[in-house]
Amino acid sequence: MELLSWAFLYGAGFFGLFILFLMLGGVFTVTEQTIAIIEVFGKFYATKTAGIRLKFPFPIATIAGRINLRLQELTAQVEVKTIDNVFVVIPVSLQFRIIPDRARDAFYALDNPEHQIQSFVLNVIRTAASGMTLEHLYTEKSKIAEEVSTELKDRLASFGYTVEAVLVDQPAPPQEVQDAFNRVIAAERAKEAASLDGASTRIRIIAEADAEKEDKATSFLYFQFFSPLLKRNF
Predict the structure, then answer these.
(1) Which of 7, 172, 206, 221 has a C-alpha 20 to 30 A away from that of 165?
(2) For residue 18, what is the DSSP state?
């Protein structure tokens, strides 16, 4: 009987400590595709993945933050100056994620990840576009995306990030530049149409001249053939 009493007391004590542990935040949960960063006295201690986790060593361990492992997308409107002195806005989308094994680097290396990654994107695109004409920006979008992807993969890997895709959309020049382009295209089409009309007219004139020449030749032969017969009869 006495043994059961002691067992009950120990069980009740353990249960009470467990409840106190829960109340003081010693147990916490980490959601899927998330990593919790644990610090002890302000220094990195461990990372915790999805599930129910103990905040150990309790109570000095704290959750410094949580990082998102899902695919993230950053969009930017990059204004660049082409080699032919035209200012163009290039819409860019960067898809990236944190490398799980590099969660510590991703959490501590960058103070404002999205802002700093955006700065990297702006710098790389401006450098790539500065040596291109406006026409090349339209035709070499895939090349720009490839350059940005290659440059950012190497740079962001050191911070615990990986680049999944870089999407470069259609450049948007100022309205006056678009109007000028439309006028140039219209003028070129008008020139081509005039050239085709001129060629058609030349072909028609040559055909008419050939036909007239053939008629004259036929008339001449006719005259040469029937002229002696007419003289004989008259």
Answers:
(1) 172
(2) H
Which residue has tokens 């915790």? 48
Helix (H, G, I), strand (E, B) or coil at 93: strand
- 37 with 91, same domain: the answer is no
79 shares its domain with 57: no
Q: Could you give the CA distance from residue 149 to residue 133 in angstroms, rounded to a whole number? A: 21
Q: Say whether both 82 and 130 belong to one domain.
A: yes
Tens of pLDDT, residue by residue over 54-103, are: 887 877 888 999 999 999 999 988 888 888 888 888 899 999 999 999 99
Q: Residues 69, 98: contact at Cβ < 8 Å?
A: yes
Q: Cα–chain-centroid distance for residue 95? A: 8
pTM metric for this prediction? 0.64
Q: What's the domain count of the chain?
A: 3
The domain in which residue 37 lies consists of: 2-68
Question: Burial code of 65-91, b = ≥16 C-beta within 10 A, e = fewer?
Answer: eebebeebeeeeebebebeeebebebe
14-25 pLDDT tens trace: 666 666 555 556
Boundary (domain end) residue, out of 27, 42, 68 = 68
Please indicate, yes or no, whether residues 109 and 39 belong to a single structural domain of this protein.
Answer: no
For residue 88, the model assigns a pLDDT of 86
